[in-house]
Please model this.
Amino acid sequence: ATQNNNTQDGGSVVWTHALSPTLTFALTGSASRAESDVAQTGIGGVGTTRQRSVTANLASPLSANTSATAGIRYQVFRSDLSSSYTEAAAFVGVNHTFR
Model:
C-alpha cells in the first residue's frame, strides 16, 4: 500500500519538422519524477524515482496503409527503490492499417 501513496510530476516536449513531403523528423524530450509520500523502510527516508529521455525519429509513409519509422533513444532512470539504468537504443518499425 505504501508504494501507491506517492506524488508524481513530469512532462514532455515534442518538436516535429517536415524534411520533405513524405519524410517527417520528430524530437521528443521527457522527464518525470515520483516521490513516495511515506517513509520507506530500508532506505532511511522517502523513495524517489527520476526518469529522463530523448528520442529522435524519422517517419515516412510507404503506401496508403503502411508507414515506416526509425530512430534512436537515450534514457536515464534513477531510483532509491529499484535498480537504476542508462539506455541507448536504436529502433525501426513498420505500421500497417488493415481496412
